[in-house]
From TrEMBL, chains A, B:
The protein's name: Beta sliding clamp
Principal cellular location given in the protein's record: cytoplasm
Domain DNA polymerase III beta sliding clamp central, chain residue ranges per copy: 129-239
Naturally occurring in which organism (per UniProt): Clostridium homopropionicum DSM 5847
Originating gene: dnaN
Start and end residues of each DNA polymerase III beta sliding clamp C-terminal domain: 244-363
GO BP: DNA strand elongation involved in DNA replication
Keyword field contains Nucleotidyltransferase: yes
Amino acid sequence: MNFSCTKTKLQEAISIAQKAVTGKSPMPILQGILISAKDNELILIGSDIDLSIETKIEAEVLQEGSIVVDAKIFGEIIRKLPNSLVEIKTLDNNSIEIICEKSKFNLIHMDPEEFPSLPRINENIIFSVSQKMLKNMIKSTIFAIAQEETRPILTGILFEVKENKLNLVALDGYRLALRSSIIENEDVINAVIPGKTFNEVSKILSDEDENVNITFTPNHILFNLGDTKIVSRLLEGEFIKYNSIIPEEFALKVTAKRLELLNCIERASLMAKDGNTNLIKFDIKEDTLIITSNSQLGRVREELNIILQGEELQIAFNSKYLIDVLKIIEEDEIVLEFSSSVSPCVIKSKENNNYTYLVLPVRLLSN
Amino acid sequence: MNFSCTKTKLQEAISIAQKAVTGKSPMPILQGILISAKDNELILIGSDIDLSIETKIEAEVLQEGSIVVDAKIFGEIIRKLPNSLVEIKTLDNNSIEIICEKSKFNLIHMDPEEFPSLPRINENIIFSVSQKMLKNMIKSTIFAIAQEETRPILTGILFEVKENKLNLVALDGYRLALRSSIIENEDVINAVIPGKTFNEVSKILSDEDENVNITFTPNHILFNLGDTKIVSRLLEGEFIKYNSIIPEEFALKVTAKRLELLNCIERASLMAKDGNTNLIKFDIKEDTLIITSNSQLGRVREELNIILQGEELQIAFNSKYLIDVLKIIEEDEIVLEFSSSVSPCVIKSKENNNYTYLVLPVRLLSN
């Protein structure tokens, strides 16, 4: 193998392919990036079996070939090189030579034959969606996935297309995040994407309106961004019927300024850190929401102007779940819907129906 | 106690006094900040016995008094309050009430009588120096102090005034940093300041040309910045006679571009991380410095244009020590002086004599 390309492009390509290299695999080959040079093009692939990322860049290829190099050290070397042309060629002793201006590295390489092959996916059915929109939808749901592996399906995000809507849903047993967008597509899709995959995908998706093409197979999802392809296995099993969890009716509705509420909750939770319970109490009165918390350190009382429609209510929460939601919402005014002190609270924007967040209350002994 | 002051000023004062609160002391009272309200002024003190920081701000004091509050939680509460007036008063049950707009906190406080008293220092002999200059001098020497406590005196910085010069010196047995400034002062001072003290002092010193007044006692140093006073014990014992370590003569002298050399060494050290030796080799030839390194991962060769006066030389270093120095120096061109492959290398600016860095070479088996 013998090729040359610019340092900048190579560095970018490594940083994309590297996102799939977790370094946690017991297989040493998976700490590497597969580099294939052919037809004046380099293809770089990183993989941890579940997730694989392939990206290509232009290069001047003098001799075709493939190698696998350690992703971390190769990435560091290329990053530290001067902004110039990089020449890379294989030597006889299982090593490559990297030359850039007056720098010359010799680095051992691994056997490309050992690198796992990517699942072949036939891209004949394509679901196309704006990168910017998908990125935004991932960001506003991914925080609610389960962190523990006790119910693996909940470590993923439901990707649901029906009735001209794309819905992403995450839930962890304590809260739920649902983000919807209207799309012009008659497909019906129901798949659960691992949280890790969406996390890396959202870093690669652009902030622009260009589309990403998505193909599903029974076990895999493929994101095609043109020069970059991401393949991930899907999570097996049935996602929870989230619609039956979201209450359709409510007894009272509170309208509040998002930032004011967030600040009050953040201050109240300072006193709730003791014993890591994050317990804060809401006392919802006419025109006023009183938030209190106490611990061995002391106690706090916050007061906030609200608009209340319906009955007064007392209810308690883990402040972390409310803070997560209030930080993600971008709108200034929000609506909170309650039924009772033991039923979930639904949080929405006052302005649109793009998302629905649900947070379970903490049941107090006095309830 | 009962006072009110602006949130911003209180927050600033806490962040200054808090720098002395390490949270590592077995005495719970030292996790607190002592707040004394008197004569429309608040005095806040943080201390870990060795180092104490006192700062004062304006306040409207309705009732004089003193309390000690946990620095961390009190700091967090004040930081999260709205930008407004904060009222603080003691209640009967060993607690204080903090009110700011619609937020109300009750926080337990500790007994001010338990708080250690600061050493009384008579400020009749004052050494005055530009804050900006001192800050800069600390920054360019502190990285070379010893991290281990095996020789406690080396965890400090020598503060030496003689012959109209202020010298700061740090050394750890492998390298030495000497920073000098010409001052208009006939004093003779020789004291060793703990590295931790200088670290916190440099965060508080301003980047402007205003002066800080310094007073020495046999056991303490006091920095007086007007509203803020910092008192630290000195390290006991004699500092190493650093002048006898710095070679006055040299066999060869290399002039190089600082950033080029830094980049070459950083790249070379990528291959030297294996086994954490950071070993890189210099091959100094006429007009060219060749830097090489190798490990199980591979090897690297860097080449750099230099001006050599004197004999050619081969010498090896721990790259970390050279990188530390080259990152601190601000000038574009530097001079490296060598005597032999087993003698220290002296690094200076080509333009001035403000600093002298010394790095010991690594002795190779082949030497």
